[in-house]
Design brief:
The complex is a heterodimer of chains A (148) and B (476). Chain A has 148 residues and is α+β, with helices and mostly antiparallel strands. Chain A contains 3 helices and 8 strands; from the N terminus they run E-E-H-E-H-E-E-H-E-E-E. In chain A, a hairpin with a 5-residue loop joins strand 7 and strand 8. The longest helix of chain A has 19 residues, at 67-85. Chain A starts with 12 loop residues before the first strand and ends with a strand. Chain B is 34% helix and 27% strand. In chain B, the strands form 4 sheets. In chain B, strands 7, 8, 9, 11, 15, 16, 18 and 19 form an 8-stranded mixed sheet that branches. Classes of the chains: A alpha+beta (148), B alpha+beta (476).
Chain lengths: 148, 476
Amino acid sequence: MTPCGRSAGSVGRWEHFPHDADIGVRGFGTTVEEAFEQAAMALTAVVTHAPVEPKIAVEIRCKASDLELLFVDWLNSIIYEMAVRQMLFGRFAVKIEDGRRLTATLWGEPVDVERHAPACEPKGATYTALKVGVDHSGTWSAGCIIDV
Amino acid sequence: MDPARFTRVDATTWRVEPSGPMRVPAIIYADEQLIRDMDEKVCEQAVNVATLPGIVQASYAMPDAHWGYGFPIGGVAAFDADAGGVVSAGGVGFDISCGVRTMLTGLTVSHITPVQKALAESLFRQIPAGVGSTGAITLDTDEMNAMLSGGARWAVERGWGETRDLERIEESGCMQGARPDYVSDRAKERQRREMGTLGSGNHYLEVQAVAEIFDATVARVFGLAENDVVVTIHCGSRGLGHQIGSEFLREMVAAAKDARIELPDRELACAPINSEVGQRYLGAMRAAINCALANREILGHYARRVFAHFFPDCDLKLLFDVSHNTCKVEPHVIDGKQRYLFVHRKGATRAFGPGHPSLPAELRDVGQPVLIGGSMGTGSYVLVGTASSEEKAFSSACHGAGRALSRHAALKQWSGRKIVDDLAGQGIIIRSPSLRGVAEEAPGAYKDVGAVVAAAEHAGLARRVARLRPLICIKG
């Protein structure tokens, strides 16, 4: 798997997983919120491996009928903000209520083509390989394929 | 995949007979090696599509098929609205009307060689490519709506293209039935500054040389001769299409449930064609088709400007512009009766044969140019639609080489720098804002495009006319 967001041993981490044409993102955490935040880190890493400075904060909200659909909405909301603001995000704080309503703050900076050398542009999060769940040890994971 | 899973009809036709919830068979066109190399998911997804309501004849997969979203990429399926047929946002894809255009330059390789580096540099500077690039065009609300209704015609009216191009673009450059009012504000906002941009991923602008001619008669009609130079552009409807795709996918999960459609995979989300959501999607999707047609017309205009600078007498003529992610209403003859069907092509190119009434007079006798993009190092093909394609797969053919390795695996295996240097050694100049992007699109990560088009020809989907080799590749 590609480089992880945090040191080994920490529960909060992310990974990329392969898809024929595109790429999968998956976040892990001790809470579902942390798993969502880590998956967002994985989404940024689809675009760049360079550090992203937390210079500007953006607030987002989404609502969906279940946690998995909420996860896709969450990633699509980030993709939307990346596209219209021409920004990358490197820090995320997520709050989820009732498993259906999400509020979050993203911190990031405008894309610097030279420094970030963006590899590709995410088009949208998909329902392919979509899974949000908790394992027997209490670790949450949230992942799906991103169309790039 | 194990070929034993299929009934082998002939060397390039593999069939899964209907069973369980399948309403029609699934048919894959490919040679045995391509079948062996295909992901298991292709068969699974083609079979899933065969379960959807109102599907007609069969669920098809083209020789370049690979694991997609709900539908395989390289999937073709037609639905009858009057038989409860559905329209699927996943069956069109996120990059609505992504497609290819090829322009003839009237130049030969000997013209390009002395200026190859400078031309590459100039194209790279003039064609906005990659993340963080914006076009020179910003659209206000009225212009956005005019673009979404007018397509390439709108671009020509604004001076970003030529009237003579229009007859060489599908739908004469303007998709009817577009409903800009069904496109969300978020989708429009995403597109506001993206007209005339290439995007990233597998999108590119290439200067190519005709390396080989397979059919001299058709090549002459197309205006292609060995050593001729052409410009090929591969891109789609940019952020607007992506946003429409995401929004309707979400809505169609609920719509399918409301219509009591059992989905074997949520990504197959769809709505009956004769439903409010179905009609709204069709109106928005057609607006996105216009966005893609306008975008490629503008990019073609930029390429003309650069070529005019280097070759003042050069006249870039459009050979053809064809999309490979669409849903179109077309008449097809089923069991001797003509029916209007909603043909989904997800990573599949429309391939009308000789005599088709939608083709311009100059092309009608030979058939439609079918433009197949290969990987950036190996080359591309120009095919022509055949008479047999209609009964084989509703006049459809492959669209590219198809990936053999994931981006993930490609990144592990290749370095972008080395690819750029190796290709430079072969006389191919790559310009891209991202070396990692180059590595992800490494030529070795794709299937052998030659094998794909040979299988398409053998299966009667389209016939080879010319092979193109890249000289310059501007990659997003």
